[in-house]
Design goal:
Elements: H1 8-15, H2 23-36, H3 38-55, H4 72-105, H5 108-122, H6 130-146, H7 151-171
């Protein structure tokens, strides 16, 4: 974008790269909003569970195999990727760039569902997991809509991935 003539300040605004009401406030807001959106997550997970029952296929993410019988250094590496790197990268792309673009042209729900569907499709869990992943993405888009900054959606995404990664580490 900078090579296409965007000024750095404009790019930061598009991506939501501001501290909003303060970094700590944005982080807490992300976690609180995630918890408040548990009913949305419940609906998405319930639809996915219904699809599992109907089709008999269980969605899985390839990263789970990275947690089997691995050294602590490998666990730390994959946990870093899942809990820090992926949320930052995905939020910059989806709630930063894509959300800003769609939101300028369409209403909140159209933007949110479109981006959430695309977000769910790029994840390797398969089509059966799309409702559950869309629910997470909808939650993150709500955070983006409510806040000036994407720090809240990044922290909500990190919180989500940390919960899931923590359960995987405990299971393995």
């Amino acid at each position: 974008p900078l090579f296409r003539g965007f000024k750095l300040r404009e790019l930061k605004n598009i991506l939501g790269l501001s501290i909003g009401k303060g970094i700590f406030e944005e982080i807490i807001s992300g976690i609180k909003t995630y918890i408040r959106c548990i009913p949305i997550l419940f609906v998405g997970i319930s639809i996915t569970m219904l699809l599992i029952k109907v089709f008999g296929t269980v969605p899985e993410h390839p990263i789970i195999y990275q947690f089997e019988n691995k050294a602590i250094s490998q666990l730390i590496k994959w946990a870093f990727i899942a809990c820090i790197f992926a949320p930052i990268t995905e939020e910059l792309i989806f709630r930063g760039l894509f959300y800003h673009y769609f939101r300028q042209k369409y209403a909140f729900w159209i933007s949110t569902f479109t981006i959430s569907f695309i977000f769910a499709l790029i994840h390797p869990q398969g089509i059966i997991a799309v409702p559950a992943i869309m629910a997470i993405s909808i939650t993150l888009s709500i955070m983006r809509e409510l806040r000036i900054s994407i720090i809240a959606s990044i922290s909500g995404h990190m919180f989500n991935n940390t919960l899931i990664t923590g359960f995987m580490i405990i299971m393995f």
